[in-house]
Design goal:
- The active site is at residue 167.
- This is Isoaspartyl peptidase/L-asparaginase.
- Its EC number is 3.4.19.5, 3.5.1.1.
- GO terms for molecular function: asparaginase activity; beta-aspartyl-peptidase activity.
- It comes from Cirrhinus molitorella.
- Helix 7 (221-227) crosses helix 9.
- The chain is globular.
- It contains nine helices and 13 strands.
- The chain has 307 residues and is α+β, with helices and mostly antiparallel strands.
- The protein has helices at residues 16-38, 43-56, 100-110, 118-127, 139-148, 155-158, 221-227, 229-238, 243-258; strands spanning 4-12, 76-82, 88-94, 115-117, 168-173, 179-185, 206-209, 213-219, 262-268, 273-277, 281-288, 291-295, 302-305.
- The longest helix has 23 residues, at 16-38.
- Helices cover 34% and strands 26% of the residues.
Length: 307
């Protein structure tokens, strides 16, 4: 089976000052995930590696660089899912963890549960030796948070402004034909304490099933939750639609039904892939057979041949 990895850095109105860093970040993450797959690693290994790269990159709202809630604190959410067994791990509202995707994987592999939140997730992280990170807030985010406190518009408007920020994610198909997804986020700036969006919720922020494919979603979390976007896309694929048609139809439905914008990356169990969005921009990249595709603006698809 020819391997595929697709990554995204969030669907929102990415400002020009972050555009170059966002594209560079997703390309680097795609290469990192591809290297895992080329070495015979699993789809789960590949999506975790790619998302860790994005969490460590301060250009993105996940891990280092995460946005702050209304009290000026970081609260992080993540999910990872194995399409072979439907095993899933998720964490929500975790505060001092640099790589929540790896904590989510530990929940999947080392507990009988699917999701841990807040204090319980932190206690579990401490028990298994995941270090506490006190350096997740960037100077830029602290300044933006202080500035945005005077900005009283609704959350949906934020996705059409520089205040949006969003999620990161990856989907992969490995050489054995298994798919996986991972999604990670710091959520929405100035969110209420304890607010959880779509990201860690199975079927909304992500879903993976070898019988159809894998999806990672991004955008207005409350809208994505209402239409269970990841599972909706795979439902359309199960009806015979291609990855791109399924993603477009589902995003269009979300826009019509609940007036929500967003994006999704998709890979089918046969290697068909897509990166679609209805926001102003979404940084994304894919790697298949040494061809790197990437884009930022609507209908943009640049290619590079890797040696």
């Amino acid at each position: 089976m020819k391997t595929v990895i697709v990554v995204h850095g969030g669907a929102w109105a990415i400002p020009d000052m972050l555009a170059e860093a966002s594209v560079a970040g997703v390309k680097t993450a795609a290469r990192a995930g591809d290297a895992v797959l080329k070495n015979g690693g699993s789809a789960v290994d590949a999506v975790e590696k790619a998302v860790r790269y994005l969490e460590d990159d301060p250009a993105f709202d996940a891990g280092h660089g995460a946005v702050l809630n209304i009290n000026g604190e970081v609260e992080l959410d993540s999910i990872i899912m194995d399409g072979k067994t439907l095993a899933t791990g998720a964490v929500a509202s975790v505060r001092n963890i640099a790589n929540p995707v790896s904590l989510a994987r530990a929940v999947m592999q080392k507990t009988d549960h699917v999701m841990l939140t807040d204090r319980g997730a932190s206690m579990f992280a401490e028990r298994i030796g995941i270090p506490v990170a006190d350096d997740l807030v960037t100077e830029l985010e602290r300044k933006d948070w202080e500035l945005s406190n005077s900005y009283k518009d609704g959350v949906k408007t934020l996705f059409n402004t520089q205040w949006g920020h969003d999620t990161v994610g990856a989907v992969a198909l490995d050489s054995l034909g298994n798919v996986a997804c991972a999604t990670s986020t710091g959520g929405i700036r100035n969110k209420m304490v304890g607010r959880v969006g779509d990201t860690p919720i199975i079927g909304s922020g992500g879903y993976a099933d070898n019988r159809s494919g894998a999806v990672s979603c991004t955008g207005h979390g409350e809208s994505i939750l209402k239409v269970t976007l990841a599972r909706l896309i795979l439902f359309h694929m199960e009806q015979g639609k291609s990855a791109t048609v399924a993603a477009d139809a589902s995003l269009q439905y979300m826009g019509e039904r609940v007036k929500g914008c967003g994006g999704a990356i998709v890979v089918s169990s046969s290697g068909d892939w897509a990166a679609n969005f209805t926001t102003e921009r979404m940084a994304w990249a894919s790697l298949k057979e040494n061809v790197l595709h990437y884009g930022l603006n609507p209908k943009e698809d640049f290619t590079e041949m890797l040696k």
